[in-house]
Amino acid sequence: MKRKKPLAGEDWIKAAFRALSSAGPQAIRVESIARDLKVSKGSFYWHFKDVAALKSAMLDHWARVGTADIIARSGAGDASPKEQLEIVIELATGNGTDEYGGLLSEGAIRNWARSDKQAALVLAKVEKARLQFVEENFAKLGFSAANSAIKARILYAGLIGIEHLSLQGFAEMRNDMLNLLELLLSEPDAGTNN
Q1: Quick one: CA torsion of 42, 46, 50, 56, rounded to 10 degrees?
Q2: Which pLDDT tens digit goes with each residue over 51-102?
Q3: Residue 60's CB: how many other CB atoms inside 10 A?
Q4: From residue 150, how far is each of 48, 89, 157 by CA, in Å?
Q5: Is residue 46 within a helix (H) or strand (E), and if so which, with residue range?
Q6: How many other CB atoms sit within 10 Å of the CB of residue 12?
Q7: Residues with Cβ < 8 Å from 144, sequence gap 6 or more?
Q8: In this predicted structure, what is the pLDDT of residue 5?
Q9: Which end of the chain has the least Cβ crowding within 10 Å, N or C?
Q10: Where are the beta strands (DSSP E) in 45-194?
């Protein structure tokens, strides 16, 4: 009989995100997550002191994997600013979120942040980093600071909205986001000769 690989803390984090995505922050409970993982809840305490520690680890993990790592991957090599934005879109709209609850996970985090101060603080930090990265790339493409900020907000808001529409079957996330990027890049900078 093949011996089961011991669970890592990341396995608990992913399962907690699936619980959050399917039933909200109240579903982040040791017993139900252990059931999902088909292990005893004693396994949880090898990795986390309590549920609060798990929630904190979830937020740190999301900030790293869902933002810092994506930004780093998009900037690797000699990618142009446009290519960096395309890479971010591809990573953000890919299947990488499936083990975290899929498309529901980002919206679930936003909902969680409405009632949890720590989640709200991390969400604000993540959104600031994401917007700053996108804004910097628009600026590198020659847009003014003001227009770069506007275009960054539109692109990011588009992603949030497209996620929702995609869940309803009304959008194709990657294609729609790449089309939105093209529209934003084709719109000339106000007051310049772009």
Answers
A1: -140
A2: 999 999 999 999 999 999 999 999 877 899 999 999 999 999 887 778 888 8
A3: 12
A4: 41, 17, 10
A5: none
A6: 24
A7: 189, 190, 191, 192
A8: 74
A9: N
A10: none
Q: How many CA atoms lie within 13 A of 116 on its CB side?
A: 19
CA distances from 189 to 81, 85, 138, 185, 186 (A): 16, 18, 10, 9, 9
Phi-psi region of 16 (alpha: psi -120 to 50; beta: other; left: phi over 0): alpha
**Residue written as token pair 């305490």:** 45
**Which residue in 33, 50, 9, 28 sits closest to 109, CA to CA?**
28
Residue 2 pLDDT greater than 60, yes or no: no
Map tokens 């446009």 to a residue. Answer: 82
Identify the sign of the CA torsion 146, 147, 152, 154: positive
d(CA 191, CA 69): 35
Q: Which domains does the chain have, with CATH numbers?
A: 9-186 (1.10.357.10)
Helix (H) or strand (E) holding 99: none
Cα separation, 184 vs 137, in Å, equals 12
Three-state secondary structure call for residue 154: helix
- Please write down the HEC assignment for all residues of 155-180: HHHHHHHHHHHHHCCCCCHHHHHHHH
Residue 11, amino acid: D
